[in-house]
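Batch manifest line 349
LIGAND: nicotinamide-adenine-dinucleotide
JOB: complex structure
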Amino acid sequence: MKTILITGGAGFIGSHVVRRFVKKYPDYKIVNLDNLTYAGNLANLRDIENEPNYEFVKADITAGELMKALFKKYRFDGVIHLAAESHVDRSISSPMEFIYANILGTVNLLNAARVIWEDYTDKRFYHISTDEVYGSLGATGFFYEDTAYDPRSPYSASKASSDHLVRAYNHTYGLPTVISNCSNNYGPFQFPEKLIPLAIHNIKNNKLVPVYGKGENIRDWLYVEDHANAIDLIYHEGKIAETYNIGGHNEWKNIDLIQLLCEIMDRKLKRSAGTSANLITYVKDRAGHDLRYAIDSAKIQRELAWKPSLQFAEGLEKTVEWYLANEEWMKNVTTGDYQKYYDKQYTKR
Ligand code: NAD
Ligand code: TYD
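JOB STATUS: finished
ARTIFACT:
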């Protein structure tokens, strides 16, 4: 039986990866290591928490000696590392948390693997990263695996730094690493600080929907289960020392996305057309707001036969349905500090 460490498994993407691996691979023991920050939520894994091949360990990846002790105890065969501080806006207001979790945390895991793994045969250290490391595009062009890094927010700079360290540990120590850089994910269990669940939550509660700047920034959206599928493929079939870009070929200007979401919400909530769109409010732009991200995912499509399964309209509809059907989940994650943080944030343009 192989034992796989998945870090950040109580978060948005991590919970989909943990669920997929626990269900699909009964021969693997899945250890989910997470320190349950505001974004970590064990309710995301209720349906699999009693499975015999699943174990949760509450631990902080910034604790280096503890990581080594856990590597010794569990004898992990592989690592899928997702734990991170993940929101650009928070990285602007509190950059140091990103430095500790994303850079120091990643190095601690690399060190534990390097020192505790006796030989690297059949081992694998897989780092989950973002397309934001490549910087920002103009109106045309794509990010390729060999696009030069040009991170521009504390979040993307911390992820770029961790990617560099992962590659350095491969180059210097021969640690068997692999990296993927994915575009914006959406779907169930995403914390309502990111655009889509935040807008769903606000529309549902008749609160304003904040659109930064002029709403002209562009993101390439991918349904989270398509990302989890790509992670599964790369973990099992990706080549050591390689990088894979993952994206939906699904670019949306923020304001167009929000308009589409408003139409879906009006329909689902049986409100008259235009009700939700009335909540759209242009607010002060994000500092250093990257204009456009777009991924070329030809490599993973060609080499690992991956492709996104859902059209955006369908994925967005499914996502809205999930949030509306899971009011209790939303209520639990939007109490206390959440209100303070999000009510303060917006200044009208
Ligand atoms: P998330 O914020 O929903 O979840 C992050 C998880 O990591 C949480 O459960 C949190 O408790 C845990 N965590 C944070 N700091 C930790 C620490 N010090 N020790 C242990 N656990 C810690 O994030 P997400 O959106 O699921 O992103 C997961 C990974 O995927 C991140 O590495 C992110 O950079 C990357 N990524 C995200 C996206 C996206 O669109 N969300 C796109 C590409 C890549
Ligand atoms: P976000 O979901 O924070 O992801 P990222 O910054 O990693 O791309 O934001 C997606 C886009 O939506 C980004 O261009 C910023 C914008 N945005 C808003 O216009 N309003 C909001 O309330 C949020 C959270 C984001």
